[in-house]
Amino acid sequence: MKLLKNLMKGILILLAVIGISIFMIIQLFDSMYNKQTNEPEYVEEGPSTEEFIGSIAETARKLGAENDLYASVMIAQAILESQNGQSGLGSAPNNNLFGMKGQFQNDSVTLVTSEDDGSGKMSTVMAEFRKYPSYEDSMKDYVKLLRNGVSWNKDFYTGVFKSQTKSYTDATKFLTGSYATDSKYNEKLNLLIAKYDLQQYDSPVKNKKTITVDDGDSLMHIAEAHNVKVTSLKQWNQLRSDRLEAGQQLNIYQY
After folding, report:
1. Rounded to whole angstroms, how far apart are CA atoms 208 and 254?
2. Torsion angle, alpha carbons of 195, 243, 61, 186, to 10
3. How far apart are the C-alpha atoms of 52 and 57, rounded to whole Å?
4. Which pLDDT score, from 0 to 100, does residue 125 have?
């Protein structure tokens, strides 16, 4: 009888140990699962359209002023053609902001692209595109094309010059069917120019000042106080989001 009691006691202890072990294992896995699901994984944000504009805007303003071209159209084309510099062709190491085909200094990359037959019907083809060391090289080569035309007609792109047009809308209309096969190319460019107030880059800067962000300031508050647009503030300062920090410095331009 005593032996049986000891045996039963041993079995109960063993079952208790097994139960406690199972409970601890369940708690451990539950803790790990909750940690994974409750703590969001950090994902780095890509550049905003305003941040991309800010990275090329002053170069576009300078090139436009020097070459009788609309900087607004140049920037809009770069946004559209390169997807804010994030497309396979527009991003490093290719840096081709304008979808220009061929070679640049004997360097190129071959990629799949879509072509519009002029009526809105799209087809997919392989094409050789120019590869550039930097965005600035891409922009200068784009300007060279517009100013010098094509091999069979050096005046091919005169329809985009400021001196030959009444506004940027004339330039975007001319580019539709001549620069790009997309039958709605001008509509897309015009929307971008209006949305991001890109016309500001067609004029020289009259004044520039730097302000310091106070605690509790917002982009909206600062924009209203200085009579500028939020999108412009983000462009001028290459901001990725609307978040500001006290003590942060912001550039403000007047035209």
Report:
1. 6
2. -20
3. 9
4. 75
As a whole number of angstroms, the distance between CA 179 and CA 99 comes to 10
Instruction: Give the CA distances from residue 191 to residues 77, 122, 143, 169, 251, in Å, rounded to whole numbers and listed in that order.
Output: 11, 22, 22, 10, 26
Nearest residue to 192 (alpha-carbon basis) of 90, 83, 98? 83
Q: Are 172 and 73 in contact (CB under 8 A)?
A: yes
* Helix locations, 39-70, DSSP H: 49-67
Average pLDDT in the 215-230 region?
94
H-helix segments, the chain: 2-38, 49-67, 71-82, 135-148, 168-175, 185-195, 219-225, 230-236
Query: Rounded to whole angstroms, how far apart are CA atoms 78 and 231?
Result: 17
What is the dihedral angle through the alpha carbons of 93, 99, 102, 106, rounded to the nearest 10 degrees? -20
Main-chain dihedrals φ then ψ at residue 235, nearest 5 degrees = -70, -50
59-94 pLDDT, tens digit per residue, is 999 999 999 999 999 999 999 999 999 999 999 999
Tokens of residue 126, six digits: 């392989």
